[in-house]
């Protein structure tokens, strides 16, 4: 299975491409914004596509040609303003979904925010609310397609080494989770068709990623 990782140069994205390249059944195509970001991925043996999420849908669709799945791990980051949140976390996600349709890619995994419900929007701190809004509508757009989607809602992200141990369900208590383990969850979801049409929250826990995914 060949997987286009959108936002590959992000922290989850880098873990994900590495894990995919270590899996004999999978291969990664890293979608990044700048040529100078490419060496990390080329050293892993991954194919690279230089595309900006603010480009046209057709450019993203070209990057998606010939792949079997798309994973959206991109994010505007905590230091950008509401404008970039709108352009990347909402419009970038929607354009990638539309690009998947154009490229006839059915499998799509979205890395979302822990809680994108209407209640979460209303209760979010002012600075965080635009991000939750963007993720809410991107998730909703994806659910209303015919794509074979999975939506991953990770808890508070850390750079701790992954333990391959998580708690994963439609609803879990809010907590933290290493980015490396989120990447492991994405790989396991791609390899398990029972996750199609599902959305789940994930935090650190005591169940192996493989077993946790099987329980979805």
TrEMBL record:
It holds the Pfam family NAD_binding_10. CDD domains: SDR_a5. It comes from the Bacteria. InterPro entries: NAD(P)-bd_dom, NAD(P)-bd_dom_sf. Residues 7-192 form the NAD(P)-binding domain. It comes from Gracilibacillus kekensis. This is Nucleoside-diphosphate-sugar epimerase. SUPFAM superfamilies: NAD(P)-binding Rossmann-fold domains.
């Amino acid at each position: 299975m060949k997987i286009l990782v959108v936002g590959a140069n992000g922290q989850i994205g880098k873990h994900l491409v590495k894990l995919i390249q270590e899996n004999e059944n999978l291969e990664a195509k890293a979608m990044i914004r700048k040529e100078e970001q490419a060496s990390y991925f080329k050293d892993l043996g991954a194919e690279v596509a230089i595309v900006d999420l603010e480009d046209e849908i057709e450019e993203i669709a070209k990057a998606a040609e010939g792949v079997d799945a798309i994973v959206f791990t991109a994010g505007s980051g905590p230091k950008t303003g509401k404008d970039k949140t709108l352009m990347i976390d909402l419009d970038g996600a929607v354009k990638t979904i539309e690009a998947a349709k154009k490229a006839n890619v059915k499998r799509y995994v979205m890395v979302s925010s822990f809680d994108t419900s209407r209640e979460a929007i209303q209760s979010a701190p002012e600075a965080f609310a635009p991000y939750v809004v963007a993720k809410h509508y991107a998730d909703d757009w994806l659910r209303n397609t015919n794509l074979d989607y999975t939506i991953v809602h990770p808890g508070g992200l850390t750079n701790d080494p992954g333990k391959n141990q998580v708690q994963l369900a439609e609803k879990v208590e809010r907590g933290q989770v290493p980015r490396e383990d989120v990447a492991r969850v994405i790989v396991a979801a791609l390899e398990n068709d029972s996750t199609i049409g599902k959305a789940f929250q994930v935090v650190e826990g005591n169940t192996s990623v493989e077993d946790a995914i099987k329980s979805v």
